[in-house]
Design brief:
2 domains; single chain; six-stranded antiparallel beta sheet
Length: 373
């Protein structure tokens, strides 16, 4: 049998302590959140069904997964230091069981939590966050509206889009222009009073459209000092439908937009934005790599937690828990610092996001080498 009595004993303690602690903190969060929003819920006449299923049911996986590395670490520190204080580790080691063998159930438990977190990060939580944000925008934020002005977007290799303002509530842009620039020369220009998204045809409906196409003579006689000849055609139409690589999703706020896209959708979006030459691509690359690197923290912190708390010390478990919390806080701080560095474009997103894991992998190795054997 793969799992022995020792594995089941430690694994049961690990997972039960983790789920108990994470459930407890989530219940506390929910109580405080209800206290803060109770007036909004009652004054807005929000249906109880939506509060439960569209908000708090989406609230739980997001914050549960967010705090999972920290609470996996706390769980390991808590029950392992208690085992050490009761001399259980001395008995296990005295029986001839190696420290490496003792680590096996911890690694199995950490892998279960890490792989679950990885799956949640890439596929489940984006959908939960989307539903939660929709609820907040509908009932709490009084519908989100984009407040940007004079918006410029690159929507093709040589095509630029300009929008004076955009209303997310009705998916309508005002004072719109599109121009094609080839070899630093304008070859096409379009202007319209506004454009509205047609969700059925997935096209934009423009009103009062003015178009100008510029044609330049290619072959010139340089001996006769011929100058380029520009020909242009001008047209005006009351309304026109166009299909361009730009949708209302592109006008959603960056912090929310990157969080609501599942793995494959986010990957395709990054490829598409790179082709457009977007200057906000770092935010989405960081999100993509963060979703994979963050679950790995559970494994690293578990190894550190076992090594720190498996030794019996005077004064009980307080010192071990304090040391563990200090290390986890440093780890989380480094993750935020390097994420901020990656979003500025100062360092490659993948390297910056994974750097804290690389640093603490060596920290975990050091604690493993110096742990009680």
């Amino acid at each position: 049998m793969f799992l022995k009595k020792l594995d089941i004993y430690i694994l049961k303690k690990f997972l039960s302590t983790f789920f108990f602690s994470i459930t407890l903190i989530l219940l506390i969060f929910i109580v405080f959140d209800i206290k803060e929003k109770i007036q909004t819920f009652t004054n807005g006449n929000i249906p109880l069904k939506e509060i439960i299923f569209d908000y708090y049911l989406m609230f739980v996986p997001y914050f549960g997964n967010f705090f999972s590395p920290l609470f996996a670490f706390i769980a390991v520190i808590f029950f392992t230091s208690k085992m050490a204080h009761q001399s259980e580790f001395i008995a296990i080691l005295s029986s001839g069981t190696s420290f490496k063998r003792i680590m096996r159930p911890y690694i199995i438990g950490a892998l279960i939590l890490s792989l679950s977190s990885l799956f949640l990060n890439h596929f489940i939580i984006p959908k939960a966050v989307k539903r939660k944000i929709s609820f907040e925008d509908k009932w709490i934020n009084n519908s989100y509206n984009n407040e940007e002005h004079n918006i410029h977007k690159k929507i093709g290799a040589n095509r630029l889009l300009y929008i004076e303002s955009y209303d997310n509530r009705i998916n309508t842009a005002t004072k719109v222009s599109i121009e094609d620039i080839v070899n630093n020369k304008q070859t096409y220009f379009l202007s319209a009073d506004n454009m509205r998204w047609d969700s059925l045809s997935r096209e934009w409906l423009l009103t009062n459209v003015y178009e100008r196409r510029v044609i330049v003579q290619d072959r010139l006689d340089t001996l006769k000092n011929q100058k380029p000849i520009f020909k242009q055609t001008n047209t005006f139409t009351p309304s026109k439908k166009i299909k361009i690589p730009f949708t209302p999703n592109d006008m959603w706020r960056y912090d929310s937009k990157k969080e609501v896209m599942p793995y494959f959708e986010l990957k395709e979006y990054i490829i598409r934005e790179k082709m457009k030459g977007s200057n906000q691509i770092e935010f989405f690359e960081v999100e993509q790599y963060r979703r994979s690197s963050f679950p790995f923290a559970t494994l690293i912190l578990t190894i550190i937690g076992v090594c720190v708390s498996s030794r019996k010390v005077r004064g009980g478990v307080g010192l071990q828990i304090a040391l563990g919390l200090l290390l986890s806080c440093i780890y989380i701080m480094l993750m935020y610092v390097f994420t901020a560095i990656a979003t500025t474009g100062f360092a490659p997103a993948m390297l910056a996001v994974w750097t804290p894991n690389i640093i603490f992998s060596f920290v975990a190795l050091y604690f493993y080498k110096t742990a009680q054997k």
